[in-house]
Amino acid sequence: MPAVTVENILALPRLPLPDATAVARPVRSVTTAPAGFEGEGFPVRRAFAGIDLTLLDPFIHMDQMGEVEYAPGEPKGTSWHPHRGFETVTYMIDGIMEHKDSGGGGGIISGGDTQWMTAGAGILHIEAPPEHLVQSGGLFHGVQLWVNLPRENKLAHPRYQDITGSKVALLSSNDGGALVRVIAGEVAGHQGPGSTYTPIALSHTTVAPGAALSLPWNPSFNAIVYVLAGSGTVGPERRPVEKGQTVVLGRGDTIELAASERRTEPLEVFVLGGQPIREPIAMAGPFVMNTRSEVMQAFEDFQAGRLGSIPPEYA
Ligand code: MN
Question: In terms of Cα–Cα distance, which of 26, 3, 33, 25 is closest to 243?
Fold first, then answer.
């Protein structure tokens, strides 16, 4: 799992040990993501399946894409499709994903890069491995997260943030046993590069076999841990977790993570949280609005070409 790694973890800023009054967040639930297929048929795990949306707020959907080793000719993507009312955040750990959109934007993401797309008022895009990867096959692994927008920003002008892996804030646990990559928001006073409409924090954390981490986490945020790979425990009660499981945590100051010592592979987790938006959610397909009539309007606008159209060079 390449993502972004470092030669000497102890050269990084270190997370403080929690003080004696810090409350470790208890585990509220552990769920196992069902496997499915997205787009033209690439394998995903539906990380949030079966979890109440109010516990996830401001997040609405998350897929772990892969991890899959493609044979030559096998890599798949999506066809052109619209979005409105939220943001798609695509984080690539292994392999390459190419985006193109109706506004002439897009980009290539790989090796720990994040593409943060604010769909806002509406955009059409396509997400696919580049042609050379389709021909060669290879490893493909990433995450796509949907972040909701508050009512006042749902129709924001579409925009991209290209967050290359080199911009991500890197932190070490106090003993050097864990690497924390802050993609957006702030963790223990360290700011990640991603800019967000509402306060959230997003991190990919690697805990070495047998190591443990007490991750400081904004007490006003909710906290969700998704296991990308490996196994270990979460919470002060040391609940066992493994690849493909999602943990919703309760209130507190820190997130307790420990990697299994019986394994040689580290515990890889995507840790996310934010301040809930607490507005009604009406969603259907690629649109996430506040009311049913706004969703109907989005379908109407899409059909009328008001969310943009496929650029002629790709049509
Ligand atoms: Mn999409």
Answer: 33
Nearest partner of 87 among 226, 195, 183, judged by Cα: 195
Question: Strands across the sheet with 212-216, in order?
Answer: 212-216, 254-259, 231-234, 239-242
d(CA 293, CA 300) in angstroms, rounded, equals 10
What pLDDT is stored for residue 230 in this prediction?
96
Give the model confidence (pLDDT) of 5-17 as tens digits: 888 999 999 999 9
Phi, psi of 254 (to 5 degrees): -135, 155
pLDDT in tens, 72-94: 999 999 999 999 999 999 999 99
- What's the gap in Å between 43 CA and the centre of ligand 1? 15
Please state the separation of Cα 257 from the chain's center in Å: 18
18, 216 contact by CB (below 8 A): yes
Share of the chain above pLDDT 70, in %: 99
3-state SS, residue 286: coil
Confidence of residue 264 (pLDDT cuts 50, 70, 90): confident
State the distance from the centre of ligand 1 to the C-alpha of 219, rounded, in angstroms: 31
Class of domain 9-303: mainly beta
In this prediction the pTM is: 0.96
Is 257 within 8 Å of 212 (Cβ atoms)?
A: yes
26 Cα–ligand 1 center, Å: 34
